[in-house]
Amino acid sequence: MVKRVSDAVKRRLPRYYRRLLSLDEAGTESVSSKELGALLGLTASQVRQDFNLFGGFGHQGYGYPVNKLREALEEILGLKRAWKMVVVGAGNIGRALAGYGYLGGDAFRVEALFDVDPAVIGTQVHGLTVKSADEMVSFINENNIDIAILTVPQEVANKVAHLISSSAVGAILNFAPVKLDAQENGPIIESIHIIDTLMSLTYQLSAKNITKPR
Amino acid sequence: MVKRVSDAVKRRLPRYYRRLLSLDEAGTESVSSKELGALLGLTASQVRQDFNLFGGFGHQGYGYPVNKLREALEEILGLKRAWKMVVVGAGNIGRALAGYGYLGGDAFRVEALFDVDPAVIGTQVHGLTVKSADEMVSFINENNIDIAILTVPQEVANKVAHLISSSAVGAILNFAPVKLDAQENGPIIESIHIIDTLMSLTYQLSAKNITKPR
DNA sequence: CGGCGATTGTTAAATAATTATCATCATCCT
DNA sequence: AGGATGATGATAATTATTTAACAATCGCCG
Prior knowledge:
The structure is a homodimer. The first copy, chain A, is α/β, with parallel strands linked by helices. Helices cover 42% and strands 17% of the residues of chain A. The first copy, chain A, has helices spanning 7-25, 33-40, 44-52, 66-77, 92-98, 136-142, 154-165, 194-208; strands spanning 30-31, 64-65, 83-88, 108-115, 124-125, 128-129, 131-132, 147-150, 171-174, 188-191. In chain A, helix 1 (7-25) crosses helix 4 and helix 2 crosses helix 3 (44-52). At the A-B interface, helix 1, helix 5 and helix 8 of A face helix 1, helix 5 and helix 8 of B. Chain A binds a DNA duplex through helix 3.
């Protein structure tokens, strides 16, 4: 049962979970791979393949029990516990994320918000007082922070990421449009590059007017 | 030269561009596929394959001229012109994005910000006055808006997306944690699901403690 | 002015991911 | 009670993506 989970599957798991959650809340008892695939734009085959990486959740002739599968995904994704986070960089995006009491408000908690700007330090953002970046590493270590959300300007992103990596944090969620250089045994890094997604859109918009999609 | 561009390549193009831009700004004249690959965590082979989809930009024995390649990518990605955007939903993320004078501040411009909440309509956000959602479709059409950034609550995301689709907008950048149902000949849709990326992190953090990476 | 070193563009091979197929089995209906 | 139905789990086939290999080519240096 310890099969390799590809990146592609890893990206699909949260999507399955979100959909299962909403089906469960709607009171749906079971769902077939075909139905779920249709809801997510995937083939039935792929849905079954994916779930079978983690074990057999389905009943033949019946489909998958929504509640049980949702529970299983919750376990797999580590959502049965709360994760403590800090936001590093109190700019526009950083402040927005500090107010993130979102989906499974239980699972993700922002514990602190840091910045270097003296004019910003001490101000209130969504009930948090912005702390000085000097305190960051010790705060992370003393409060067992799991995830650092990095929203600093790209020029300093790697420097700050390096500093964060010297703490005991488990993962970094990077919003700076820069590739952070990963370190052996350092935190897990995932990036969200908004600007890249925008450029992907303009690429497609530009291409649309030249060649039709096949 | 009209080869099919896969999704994987499409996602790498902006990364190439960003790196080329910074190399160019640093005054670097040429870069080999090997060097560029190392900077981006790709193989030299892959870099060459990708560029060759769009034509031969390199000089044998020499590498790729940074400036010329950057220009070419700018053309390919459609960054030679300005793109007009609106932000729909003046919540935390929406307000943050309204202040988006980011990278190629020339290429992307936020022209307006919409919401349904009477308490928010009329307020100022980063120099923009929040407009009523009632005006949205006509504003998009009259001002030739290219991209709508959707940052409304998930419950109404599809409803609003549908409304946007009735306008002449070319693309939607969706931040709601929901799969928008695409329509034939409707706008191009790309989504950024922050919550999914967080879950992908907790999945990896959870998995790390059970099985070591092979 | 000719050979050497380096790096491309291209084709081929290997690997990974997705889709299709099918035997098996649980449930339901008559 | 038994067969039809429908959907899983597993395996096989297909397709896509990545990596490797190598001949062709350019500039540089002597």
